[in-house]
Amino acid sequence: GMQRDPTASELAVMDDMITKLSNAKPYELPNAVSRAIRVVSSPRFFLRIAERADATTDAMEKEKLSALADNLVNTIQAVVSMTEDTLDERAKEVEKVVKAASEPDSGEFLVPLSKERVEAMRKEVEGLEEASLNEGFLSTIDSWMNKAHQDGMDGMVTIMQTALQIYAGTTIARARVRLQANVGAAVSGEDQAAADAVVDATKKGDSGMNSAASDLLEKLLHIDTDDWDVEIRSGIENDVAKEDLVSEVQKTMEAVILGLENGSMAQRVQAEFLRELVTRIEAV
Fold first, then answer.
1. Rounded CA separation 23/6 (Å)
2. How confident is the model at residue 190 (pLDDT cuts 50, 70, 90)?
3. 94: buried, middle or exposed (CB in 10 Å: 19+, 13-18, 0-12)?
């Protein structure tokens, strides 16, 4: 069909990727391509490479871009055939998560889901290896969600949304643990004075990692989004300043989201999740 023209920000993402990919070593391409297969395999992406090759006066740059276009075609074919195997794997995993949403006795899906069902879904997601919670996992959920939407199965759409929220909370919580470990490693390698300064900052809640706001955020990442308002309210009534909680989410956003592949579903889903959380905190 007719494709709309990309927005300025979409073009910026494409350009950023084209620059990165044209400077990548050939053996780095498959990984980069599989992480952003949707963007990279679109006709618009190839058109953009051609536009840039036409526009540049630098012979080296022209050469690099035309080589990129050739390499991409082969890489995409390889990645797609490989992806089909891993997508079968991911589909089985998504299926397990979805199955957990059904009533154990009847196998029926009752929406809104009970607390027990959401927890059962969470258990399935948390049981998956980090490597499984990748773009393949997300695009499987995404395509099932679109299908359910087209078939008018609103209940299933809700279940898929719940799966995405659980995915986001789980993945962000894991990334935060990794960041804390990195801070810890940096500290143990430092001299005593630097270590004391970090401990001090942590007590004051500067680095935020052990503060009440951090603990509350940790809790919010592991519960159903329907329960957020109640938890946020009780946290703010007790010992967490609203500003601290917002800044804790923003710090996490900077540390976690910026590390993800630009234009990837992982980045989009996790960013939306944290933005929604900020909106809820500010509304309390």
1. 23
2. low
3. buried
